[in-house]
Amino acid sequence: MEIRQLTYFVAVCGDLSFSRAAERLYMSQSAISHQVARLERDLGVTLLERSTRSVTITDAGRRLLPVAEQILALTDRAYAVVRERTSRIRLAANMSFAERALAAISDVRDEHTEVEIEFVLKDFTQRVDAVVSGDVDIALIRGDLDDHRVTVHPLWVEDLVVAVAKRHPLARNDTVTLDDLAPYPLLLPPRRQQVLLHGIVESAFAAAGLTPRYGDPVPSDHTATLELVNRPDAWTVLYDEPHAQALAGLRESSGRLRVPVCGIVRGRASDRRRPSGEPVVDDLLQALRRTGGELT
């Protein structure tokens, strides 16, 4: 029995849905289902009854659920109590946030010269886990997060970049509309790998009364940008400008292809237990917010 298996079991129980749990955790549904099945095999019982339309908790699952929640809470507490108490703040993100993160860290260090602020690289799941465990103080994420273990602070909103091959009929434009894009195939990784981008695109097209035309999903060992070279009629969306000379980056004129950026910290906003160093954490969140401009 592993902690992550209990985490996924509790998440599925919260929504009674593997798909919604997968979306909240930004993981594939198959990965969560596999780990819950392993937990059932380890315990020798069925915890969740699955059908094509619903998920129900068995008697064994109902008995395990409060215990699993206690174990996860104690795990978080164990990480917190053994963490070294120093004047050190750790900010987790990926490289796409590096420029803004380092600018914010520099600003805060000018005001808090006694505090060391580290910038550490982690993928999405690692960032959330590190905040919950107390390994890092703040993590930057794109999109929102529905997780009772953390507090989410909106920081700024980014425009996604529409990327096309330079041979694409729209490549000479600086901006495009969703109507312009609708006839052309959209290349994205499968939904289970990129829940956020699929959701943003579909919401934007729905608001415009349109439906995106999807091309074949991008294989796991390929990138959408490289696929555009072989599919000059297609397009994709990126968080940053494409660097390849064979590609062009465009902006969507209505501002519908946008993604929120948030900072997450451990615990609920209403939690009265204030972690060590929180004033510096608050200042760092404010500095990060300033780097992104207005939140709209």
Automatic annotation (TrEMBL):
- InterPro entries, per database record: LysR_HTH_N, LysR_subst-bd, WH-like_DNA-bd_sf, WH_DNA-bd_sf
Asked if Transcription regulation is a keyword of the record, the answer is yes
Source organism per entry reads Williamsia deligens
The entry's family comment says: Belongs to the LysR transcriptional regulatory family.
Q: Which PANTHER family match?
A: HCA OPERON TRANSCRIPTIONAL ACTIVATOR HCAR, TRANSCRIPTIONAL DUAL REGULATOR HCAR-RELATED
**HTH lysR-type domain location, by residue?**
1-58
| PROSITE patterns associated with the record | HTH_LYSR
**Domain of life, source organism:** Bacteria
Please tell me whether the keyword DNA-binding is annotated for this protein: yes
Q: Under what name is this protein listed?
A: LysR family transcriptional regulator
Which terms are listed as keywords in the entry?
Activator, DNA-binding, Transcription, Transcription regulation
